[in-house]
Design brief:
28 helices, mainly alpha, 3 strands
């Protein structure tokens, strides 16, 4: 908090503070660590409240003074499962944090001694509540949560995965017992239990493999397929086979006929017994990745428990690794839009992250390796007989007098010098910019001091550098950039590009700024400029070749990607 307060008082961007040895990256990691600890505290407290409200069942758990401070919440199955899911997710995040760059004493051994009995108590409570009031939706959620938790190494290391395995066995027996006694989910008969049933299996499997939507639909309508969990001889469900054989239309049909929240619904937590792939892994590998495949992914992703969305297979890969390996940019864009920027930088067991895989593909294809060649701007130069250049504004810090007949002062709120005034001519500015033309017409003919000279104030969001403003003004008098002290400073060049775009200055000046800016992007100190350029690409008028070059820098530079993730 102290660091944030000091940074707010300086009003300096991160890049400027880093030049002053400000620990920007370390502070970001500390904020993430604090957030992780806070999530653990909340999940720990919520779990204790649910356990305290459950009465009997489960091992004795020392809830501590914190739980006594608040009245226990009435135990319900959804609350118990929510508390369990948050507790498991928070523990996994703590474990990842302990392996990070910050050297923190998180007291994992002490926390594990308290977490294990709480997980056991929540599992017992959830099973007891399910026996009392069977609920198909909660049962499916419970099953998915248990299956996913069993695969997490962080939970295996403290023995929680064993508890989850035992609970899954008890859950299966519980549901089978309810079905045998006619009490499955609100008195439904055993014939309605979600047991796989299939008529004409050869016809169905061939239709799925061939992508024959009409035949699959007919089999469902005629009662030949009554469960989305029907499995083939290899143990794969009908939905799995549709995804594995790249038949998104069939998979969408099965999702509509057997939604995951229905008694006979598909199992979104299904994984491959050998390679650990999930349904999202299969969809990420679909080629071609059609709009139907994109819709299927979105439907599955939105309905999956959060803990299962980034499930890792036996090689430590999420679906993002698969998509990157297939150069599936449509899916990667879809994932990034859903706030999954951070997992793009997470490595698999072999050390490959989705970003590295993408960079490898782009490098092999030699996509946007070099900046586009500078544009020919010679036509913008004023002819030698034009003497307008003799009236161009002098530097603000020089002793030179204002140019003859100057009648406007351009006011720049310089980030370092404060207010700076540059002398120019209304007719030149108005002829070069429709924005400035309107502003000067409404200026009333004099500045704030009443000197009779017009005043044109630049928007600090567009330009906060007197050097940038001076280069822009001088270009209007000469049609060229003869002198520029910031030709390799991407931050100031970005200001020039913004000024050109925002004030509708001549296109050749904007092109010059963009060409110089692109040439700087491989420098690590300008990593924050890359995401800014992409977000403002349309406003700044980036052409397709420019856009490709900037996007390649985003993939290549880890620092640029982290900046983009933080901005999102």
């Amino acid at each position: 908090k102290t660091a944030d307060s000091l940074q707010a008082k300086t009003q300096l961007p991160d890049i400027e503070l880093e030049r002053l040895a400000w620990p920007t990256q370390v502070l970001a990691e500390m904020r993430e660590a604090a957030g992780c600890l806070e999530r653990w505290r909340r999940s720990d407290e919520a779990a204790k409240q649910v356990i305290a409200g459950g009465g009997a069942g489960g091992p004795a758990v020392d809830l501590g003074p914190a739980s006594a401070a608040k009245p226990p919440r009435e135990a319900t199955l959804p609350r118990a499962l929510e508390a369990l899911e948050h507790l498991l997710a928070a523990w996994c995040q703590l474990t990842v944090l302990a392996q990070g760059p910050l050297k923190l004493d998180l007291g994992l051994e002490r926390r594990a001694r308290g977490a294990t009995p709480m997980v056991s108590a929540l599992l017992d409570q959830a099973l007891a509540l399910l026996r009392q009031s069977p609920d198909v939706l909660a049962a499916r959620h419970f099953e998915t949560l248990l299956k996913h938790g069993m695969t997490r190494r962080e939970l295996q290391d403290i023995g929680v995965a064993t508890l989850l395995h035992q609970a899954l066995h008890e859950l299966t027996e519980c549901l089978q017992g309810l079905a045998r006694h006619g009490g499955y989910f609100g008195g439904m008969g055993p014939q309605d239990a979600p047991e796989p049933y299939l008529a004409s299996p050869e016809v169905l499997w061939k239709a799925i493999v061939d992508g024959d939507v009409r035949t699959v639909s007919a089999i469902v309508q005629q009662g030949g397929l009554v469960s989305g969990r029907t499995r083939d001889p290899q143990g794969h469900s009908v939905l799995w086979d549709a995804c594995a054989f790249h038949r998104p239309e069939v998979a969408l049909l099965l999702m509509r006929q057997f939604p995951p929240d229905a008694p006979q619904g598909v199992d979104l937590g299904e994984t491959h017994a050998r390679n650990g792939n999930s349904l999202l892994h299969l969809i990420a590998g679909m080629q071609p990745f059609t709009p139907q495949a994109e819709g299927l992914f979105a439907m599955l992703f939105e309905r999956m428990p959060e803990a299962l969305q980034l499930h890792r297979n036996s090689r430590g890969q999420t679906f993002l690794h698969i998509a990157a390996g297939k150069a599936n940019f449509r899916l990667l864009r879809l994932a990034a839009a859903r706030g999954l920027e951070a997992p793009f930088a997470e490595a698999d067991s072999a050390g490959w992250s989705p970003l590295l895989l993408l960079e490898h593909h782009l490098s092999v294809l030699k996509v946007a390796e070099r900046a586009p060649p500078p544009r020919d701007l010679s036509a913008a130069r004023l002819p030698p007989w034009c003497l307008l250049g003799a009236l161009q504004p002098p530097a603000a810090a020089s002793d030179a007098q204002p140019p003859p007949a100057s009648d406007v002062q351009v006011l720049v709120e310089d980030a370092r010098q404060g207010p700076v005034r540059l002398h120019a001519h209304c007719v030149v500015l108005a002829a070069s910019s429709s924005v400035w033309h309107r502003a000067l017409r409404g200026a009333g003919g004099q500045d704030a001091a009443g000197s009779g000279t017009a005043e044109l104030k630049l928007d600090p969001k567009l330009c906060s550098s007197a050097d940038v403003a001076l280069v822009a003004l001088r270009f209007l008098y000469t049609g060229t950039v003869a002198e520029c002290s910031f030709g390799s400073n991407a931050h100031l060049l970005l200001q020039l590009a913004r000024l050109c775009s925002g004030c509708r200055l001549p296109t050749p000046l904007r092109f010059w700024a963009l060409d110089a800016l692109l040439a700087c992007l491989d420098e690590p100190e300008y990593a924050d400029v890359v995401p800014a350029l992409l977000m403002e690409a349309s406003t700044l008028g980036l052409e397709q070749e420019d856009h490709h070059f900037v996007a390649r820098r985003l993939v290549r530079q880890g620092a640029a990607w982290r900046r983009a993730a933080a901005a999102a």
